[in-house]
Fold this protein.
Amino acid sequence: MLSGQRATWLGSLPVDAVLPERTVLVRNEAVAHCWRRDIAMAGREDLLVGTRFVTPLAVAVLILENAGVAFTMGEEAARAPRLSAVIASEDLHLQSLDTAVLRERPGWDDALAATMGDLEA
């Protein structure tokens, strides 16, 4: 869309309150910046008031938070289950630690995942 078309489309959205509220779903922050720039270049800065540009990831996070769902973003959520699978694997051979201890005593996957997270921080 050209800048004028974006401004025309955004301006055509109904506003039912004194203060406008509009949400535009964009692919990423760079696209949101293009929208803001194009609207300003079209001379319709007024449309930016009350307009939120959000990414699908941001929407997903808001939905989960509003639903009270506990979640972890990124690799951290998958780390402990992956470590658990490695520990259970017969292919795991360590020199300094008895693998039987890792397999027979619970919690090693979580402890190792937490340690890796601490090291990354």
The radius of gyration is 24 Å. Residues 3-66 form one domain. The chain has a mean pLDDT of 87. The helical segments are 3-12, 29-41, 56-66, 76-88, 99-104, 108-120.
